[in-house]
Design brief:
The protein is an alpha+beta fold. The chain contains five helices and ten strands, in the order H-H-E-E-E-E-E-E-E-E-H-H-E-E-H.
Length: 164
């Protein structure tokens, strides 16, 4: 029993708390209003890592290198709406600090910083409100004609409904 406890303590000390609990990737949900907007996710290096239409869920790497959090630019586009960009940034994960409490010096200085698990991506749930551009265009057949009730036939008056 004593050996089992020592083996567990050694495993915990030689690993990273954030790597064990949080992992090296994080799922992020991307939504827009209106839906069906085009989405591109660009990483810190300028590479497109995901693309699709909203809503969608993506798995993003937390780190971009040793002691370097990943950053993403999310671009939303939809015809008739202004394009929008939102940043997703890495912040220090609370489980990384747990290395101090549990004596995980190797996890704190090597494992979590190298894997990127020491970071959490914020926001992890992104809801983008897209703004319509220009003035609405009338379609063929979309017309409004104002007439006096005295100009309507008896049949038209039967179908007429008052506005409330």
């Amino acid at each position: 029993m004593k050996r089992l406890i020592l083996a567990g303590a050694a495993a915990l000390a030689l690993s990273g708390c954030a790597s064990i609990i949080s992992g090296t990737t994080q799922t992020v949900t991307l939504r827009t209003e209106p839906t069906a907007a085009n989405i591109e996710v660009i990483n810190r290096a300028g590479d497109r890592v995901h693309s699709g239409t909203s809503p969608m869920t993506v798995s993003l790497k937390r780190g971009a290198g040793y002691f370097k959090s990943e950053q993403y630019t999310v671009r939303f586009t939809k015809e008739g709406y202004a394009p929008k960009e939102v940043q997703i940034v890495g912040t220090v994960n609370g489980w990384y600090v747990a290395n101090i409490l549990f004596g995980g010096l190797i996890g704190m200085l090597a494992v979590d910083p190298a894997t990127g698990a020491m970071y959490s991506l914020d926001p992890s749930d992104l809801n983008a409100q897209l703004e319509a551009t220009g003035t609405p265009q009338a379609k063929a057949g979309d017309t409004l004609k104002i007439v006096s009730t005295t100009d309507l036939t008896a049949e038209q008056m039967k179908q007429a409904k008052p506005l409330q």
